[in-house]
Specification:
Nucleotidyltransferase, domain 5, 14 strands, 21% strand, 7-stranded antiparallel beta sheet, 5-stranded mixed beta sheet, 40% helix
């Protein structure tokens, strides 16, 4: 019996000037189609009270330059807008109404194109140093690993620092019973309690330090952002456009590189930690935290955002699926810090400043976070039983 799975590979691109220009055209056309289709949908809904079913093809006669870019990229814009529209009307409390995209405010640009099966419009060269993309042709790529499976689509993106990347989505058919050789079964279970003082407290007793990448770099980042603000204000006083002000653009790039460094450090930390946990444990129990709700606490929002709990959980989930491990989600309302892990007595809610406590029933002395991770493990195993 076979099972279909999807795996993505992200590589750095090194386009020449002509290819950069085509990327910029495609980014611009994708943004234009989104805004145009959204504006027409809004106007049509106001007039009729119904949703307009428009397509990118309808605009190519009026705007012939849309034909210069990849048509599948524009088709994917239509699908994304349609999904955003449906999500909003399905759950207005959770999803916001689709926004117009601004050229000046977009720090990260991207578009997605599909691989035409049988034609191979997206493919890597034999020596893995070039990739072929629709309307772009062969482009230099730094492919640090070989692709597995059939290429389904590719997402081309440009960061705020001017770097280009391609994310290739592949479809792989594997045997359900097939074991992943690199991550053998360990018959080990673990509970994880996420925190701010320590990033993660494991039921094994190990405490993972919280690196606080954003907070550590905040002093330097604040200084550079102040310089950027001053240069922006100076350009405005002189009546110059920010795009034409070289000093402003140099400083903007400097700030963007700082943010990129912080993001890369955080991602590297999360990847290494999640891989280590998946590699050494078969069943991982953790709370189903609602990070979005927790971010409403203005005193903790910055620290929670810097910790990236949701991204860590996402990494654990997809790696567990790939390597045959199991994630057990515990209800966010489970009182993990209130229950004694020794006698299971609920001693009630405790203030955050209480880091250690003694159970009145059995006399066991607990570290608050370690006790919570043990309770999460016990609750997870109870769910599996």
């Amino acid at each position: 019996m076979t099972k279909t799975k999807h795996k993505s590979y992200k590589f750095r691109l090194y386009p020449n000037q002509k290819q950069m220009l085509m990327f910029e055209k495609t980014f611009g056309c994708s943004r234009f189609i989104w805004n145009q289709m959204l504006a027409d949908k809004i106007a049509y809904y106001k007039e009729t009270g119904q949703t307009l079913k428009n397509t990118p093809a309808q605009y190519k006669k009026e705007f012939p330059w849309l034909k210069e870019v990849d048509s599948l990229a524009l088709a994917n814009v239509q699908l994304n807008l349609q999904k955003a529209y449906q999500s909003f009307f399905k759950n207005k409390n959770h999803f916001g109404f689709p926004n117009f995209k601004s050229k000046n405010k977009m720090t990260h640009q991207s578009y997605r194109t599909n691989n035409k099966q049988g034609v191979g419009t997206i493919r890597l060269s034999d020596n893995n140093n070039q990739i072929k993309l629709p309307k772009i042709g062969w482009i230099k790529v730094k492919a640090h690993r070989k692709l597995k499976g059939v290429i389904k689509s590719a997402t081309i993106s440009k960061t705020s620092t001017g770097k280009y990347f391609v994310s290739i989505l592949c479809e792989i058919k594997i045997e359900v019973e097939e074991n992943i050789k690199t991550f053998p079964k360990t018959n080990s279970n673990i509970g994880i309690d996420l925190g701010l003082e320590h990033f993660a407290i494991l039921s094994t007793g190990e405490k993972i330090e919280n690196p606080r990448f954003l907070i550590s770099a905040s002093k330097k980042l604040r200084r550079e952002q102040k310089i950027l603000s001053r240069r922006g204000l100076l350009a405005k006083q002189r009546g110059k456009s920010l795009n034409d002000c070289m000093n402003y653009q140099k400083q903007r790039l400097k700030v963007a590189r700082l943010h990129e460094k912080i993001s890369n450090q955080r991602r590297d930390f999360l990847h290494k930690l999640s891989t280590s946990i998946i590699k050494n444990h078969d069943r991982i129990c953790m709370e189903d935290l609602a990070s979005r709700n927790l971010m409403r606490n203005h005193h903790l929002a910055r620290a929670i955002g810097d910790a990236s709990w949701s991204e860590f959980r996402r990494m654990l989930e997809y790696k567990a699926e790939w390597y045959g491990k199991q994630i057990v989600k515990i209800s966010r309302w489970f009182p993990s810090s209130q229950i004694c892990s020794s006698c299971k007595t609920n001693s009630g809610k405790k203030p955050l400043h209480v880091r250690e406590w003694t159970c009145e029933n059995c006399g066991a002395h607990h570290d608050r976070d370690l006790n919570a991770s043990l309770n999460i493990l016990h609750e997870g195993l109870k769910i599996l039983a």
